[in-house]
Amino acid sequence: MKKLILPTDFSENATNAINYAQELFANTTCTFYLLNTYTPMMYSYDYQLNSGAYIGEVLDMVKENSLQKLEELKQKLQIKYKNPKHQFELISSFNLLTDELDYTITEYDIDLIIMGTKGASGLNEILFGSNTIHVIKKVKCPVLAIPDGFFFEKPKDILFPTDYKIDYSNKHLNILKSIAKEHQSAVHTLHVSSGRDLNDEEIKNKNTLEKLLLDLNNTFYTVKDQEIPQAINEFQKSTYVHLLMMIRNKHTFLENLFLKKIINQIGFHLTIPFLVVPSKM
């Protein structure tokens, strides 16, 4: 059984990601934890000034509203999908999102977080919304980020750029393999080379990865003298990719990418679901 957290603020963006999760794992036995967190201290103070209510009363009202909306969401999903393989648990918490995720991941042995992401626009354009960035950087659990307005498409082709600097294990690839097997996906493993030969450690890691992906429809590619965003964009010109996966390791491209405030400087835009797996879990 898969255990997944679906964070929600009840926005259209969050609901879209939750719907994507239902479709992606339609044939998998899953428990979905619908999670809403709230930290209403600021408007609690304003509410007190205007009504004389105590903080405790306001928190009770907020929690009751949160639970009611979670229950309504659960019922809508059960009516819409009617999937006997799926069950739902509701979590409403007065907590920061990343802190509550850390607790829930450990408490329930979570396999994956699926959440919507909506970046800013114009001069402040970023890869993800700030909540998604914080989650990916802080939690030790795979995160599947669904772009705003992206509706489910069967992931027939999955792109997996990697630098062979990771000592791969099954834990890094479990979600990828689960998705690929369920949807009979083709996995395209893309190594972007700086032009030098692989060193001994990288050769060892590549051989390990080949063995771990042996039971998938997997193809290895090597591209020389390109930046990873360029290599990804160029690959997508020839093969329409439905999902992008990367392993987040210290000092890699992905780590540096999150430090970029203006992503359009390097021409990389998130237009498809992005699965990010931490190297240490």
Quick synopsis:
This protein is α/β, with parallel strands linked by helices and 281 residues long. The protein has nine helices and ten strands. It has a ten-stranded mixed sheet with strand order 3-2-1-4-5-10-9-6-7-8, sandwiched between helices.
Radius of gyration from the CA trace?
A: 20 Å
CATH architecture of the largest domain: 3-Layer(aba) Sandwich
Give the spatial strand order of the biggest sheet: 3-2-1-4-5-10-9-6-7-8
Structural class: alpha/beta
- Roughly how many Å apart are the termini? 19 Å
Strand content: 15-25%
Number of domains: 2
Sheet bearing the most strands, described? Answer: 10 strands, mixed
**Portion in helices:** 40-55%
CATH class of the largest domain: Alpha Beta
Number of helices: 9
CATH level 4 superfamily of the largest domain: HUPs
Anisotropy-based shape = elongated
Structural commentary:
- There is one protein chain.
- The chain is built from nine helices and ten strands.
- It is an alpha/beta fold.
- It folds into two domains: 2-147, Rossmann fold (3-Layer(aba) Sandwich), CATH 3.40.50; 157-269, Rossmann fold (3-Layer(aba) Sandwich).
- The protein has a ten-stranded mixed β-sheet, sandwiched between helices.
- Helix 4 (97-108) crosses helix 5 (130-138).
- It starts with a strand and ends with a strand.
